[in-house]
Amino acid sequence: MLKTHSCGELNRAHIGTQVTLAGWVDRRRDHGGLIFIDLRDREGIVQVVFNPATSKSCHQTANEMRSEYVVSINGRVALRPPGTENTKLPSGEVEVIAENTAILNPAKTPPFYINEDVEVEESLRLRYRYLDLRRPRMQQNLLLRYRVVKFMRHFLDARGFVEVETPILIKSTPVGARDYLVPSRLYPGKFYALPQSPQQLKQLLMVAGIEKYFQIARCFRDEDTRADRQPEFTQLDLEMSFVEEEDILELIEALFTSMVETVKPDLQLIKPFPRLSYAEAMERYGTDKPDLRFGLEIGDLSDIAAQTSFSVFRSAIAKGGKVKGISMPGGANYTRSQLEELNKLVQGLGAEGLLTVSLGTAAGNLDDLTVAMVKSVAAKFLTLDQVKAMAKRLGARLGDLLLIVAAKPELVATVLGELRQEMGYRLKLADSGRLAFAFVVDFPLFKPGEKKGQWTPMHHPFTAPKDKDVSLLDTAPEKVGGKHYDVVCNGYELGGGSLRIYTSQMQRKLFSLLGYSTKQVDELFGHLLEAFDYGAPPHGGIALGIDRVVMLLAGEGTIREVIAFPKNQSAADLTLNAPSPVTEEQLAELHLRLREE
After folding, report:
1. C-beta atoms surrounding 89 within 10 Å
2. Alpha-carbon span 317 to 304, nearest angstrom
3. Rounded to an integer, what distance in angstroms lies between the CA atom of residue 450 and that of residue 515?
4. Distance in angstroms (rounded) separating the CA atoms of residues 200 and 211
5. Cα separation of 493 and 542, whole Å?
6. Which residue, 70, 130, 191, 484, could crosslink 181 as a Cys pair with Cβ 3.0–4.6 Å?
């Protein structure tokens, strides 16, 4: 090899050792007689000294070096002179006295600083991603991702799981987002699809008797990107036979707990993981992926609001709506422009407006609240006792600000859920050094579709109904619970799973309720139903988003920061300039012709 040691590994124990290093010039400093460079590789940085008294040719070569040149250094490790140590570096007590050196490859000036963690416009970073990945923060993110995946494999291997790869070219079945389609050259007019997940394949593996399967699976969904979503992503996919829901939840809690304590022990972990029903999560937090690092729980004020003379409240309740709110600590000092900003936020989410009630400007006991202290456009429609009752319901004190929304129940939950998250961010209530995992359970099996009387699966159509609710499938589908569970952390859904349907009769029943004809079921899912008839075991599993897990562990705000070559917010690959046109010859070979828009 062209190197005997890594830059970051050198320390006092190597003093006097002859070493050969190779890497990139991080910084170069010419002090007249002596030239210093900081040499960087994946493991860290070490200072190299070029002294003309030691080697004139080395010193001349160092004079040509510039930032990001790829160089090789041979020399002796020495202790730095007293007072020149760099305590920020593991190698900061030593330096290498260069005796031989070579420039392996010069470099153009990069379009942004690599040796400084400065803000760089994302499109520029993605255009030159290979340079962006040289930056220490990005290298640490990729190494963290590697350690997370390595831990998952070892953890599951120790518990009897077998890693099985499943195909990337599969059949298109409409059970989620839009598929990415791949035309077949050998079968004109027919297409493969890229898997949105290995869902049906892992169920077939259970029929095959594998019993405990996992895979670090690549998945593809043609949907709009966002901070925690990419067109292609990676998930830990696993499935188990002869299990109940609690077996899977216990496995996942043990996986996350031991993983965090092993690969990121500096992070605080709240354990054991709390369990929230879907209904409880929506009632208290307005979302099924709540951030539990802070309170600001939503309170139902409908009973109090119904007794007021405020027409907005009374009208909403009369139409079957709800009046709910949260208390913002110390928010009574918000200015008019700040309150208007919050009002526009909730209007952007679909609500008609936000009612704010200020509880005085100084902190104190709620019992000391007077009429004069209450500031609100609805103040004249609310008695002091009603204001106090609302404040107590929301856990408020003097100096706080009540944020109240009146609308349809689903809209109230959505708006206050988003508002709660925004307030937690603004008030810095969510400690970035803490992970608050939770399981959300007891989901409904269905949710209303776009058309009246139509149903869509809350999770996917392979989720089993709760045993006690099977009799309701024909009479009251909206009351049927599903054996579905999610694991959430810090406001993100990290994964979802369920116990599966494993008989063809029940699976056909679910497809029928979802509006599929018998012919459609046989064409799209006949392979799975036939497999069930050959003895499918009870089984269940879960899929965990590795990108989101690493994003949280790394303290990043988007999964693009923990993926080597991500797509941008418009689903474009700026490094390779994809998607891109193909030739007429390629299209003809695939029996395709582009339609003019």
Report:
1. 18
2. 11
3. 12
4. 15
5. 12
6. 191
- Among the residue ranges 8-22, 144-158, 313-327, 440-454, the one predicted with the least confidence is 440-454
Range 237-241 average pLDDT: 98
Asked whether 49 and 32 are in contact (CB, 8 A), the reply is no
Q: What is the pLDDT of residue 371?
A: 92
321 and 377 belong to one structural domain: yes
Phi, psi of 259, deg, nearest 5: -65, -50
Residue where the block lists tokens 């930032």: 67
Express each pLDDT in 555-596 by its tens digit: 999 999 999 999 999 999 999 999 999 999 999 999 999 988
- Give the C-alpha separation, 241 to 203, whole Å: 9
Q: Are 545 and 496 in contact (CB under 8 A)?
A: no
Name the nearest CA neighbour of 576 among 248, 261, 102, 130.
130
Q: Quick one: tokens of 576?
A: 């390779």
Banded pLDDT at 543 (limits 50, 70, 90): very high
- Give strand pairing partners of 326: 403
Average pLDDT along the chain: 94
Same domain, 476 and 421: no
The range of the structural domain enclosing residue 224 comes to 136-269+543-589
Span 271-282, average pLDDT: 96
Give me the amino acid identity at 207: V
**Could you tell me the CA-to-CA distances from 371 to 305, 310, 339, 387, 447 in Å, in that order?**
18, 16, 21, 9, 44
The tens digit of pLDDT for each residue in 477-502 reads 999 999 999 999 999 999 999 999 99
CATH number at residue 45: 2.40.50.140
CA angle 205, 460, 502 (to 5 degrees): 40
CA 93 → CA 85, 88, 167, 415, distances in Å? 5, 10, 52, 55
Q: Each residue of 504-527: b (16+ CB within 10 Å) or e? A: bebbbbbbebbebeeeebeebbee
According to the model, what pLDDT value does residue 32 have?
A: 84
What φ, ψ does residue 492 adopt, rounded to 5°?
Answer: -120, 145
Q: Which sign, positive or negative, has the C-alpha torsion 328, 330, 332, 338?
A: negative
**What pLDDT does residue 497 have?**
97
* CB burial of residue 338 (10 Å; 0-12, 13-18, 19+): middle
pLDDT per residue as tens digits for the range 320-344:
999 999 999 988 888 889 999 999 9
Maximum Cα–Cα distance across the chain: 93
Q: What is the CATH number of the domain that holds 423?
A: 3.30.1360.30
Tens digits of residue pLDDT in 250-272: 999 999 999 999 999 999 998 89
DSSP, collapsed to helix, strand or coil, labels residue 423 as: helix
Cis peptide before 195 (omega within 30 of 0): no
How many whole angstroms separate alpha carbon 119 and alpha carbon 45? 22
Beta bridge partners of 37: 28, 48
For the cut 80, the answer to whether the pLDDT of residue 176 exceeds it is: no
Separation in Å, CA 440 to CA 538, 568, 589: 22, 31, 49
Residue listed under structure tokens 């493991």: 43
Do 537 and 571 belong together in one domain?
no
Distance CA 525, CA 505 (A): 13
Q: What is the mean pLDDT of residues 74-84?
A: 95
Distance, CA of 494 to CA of 491 (rounded, Å): 9
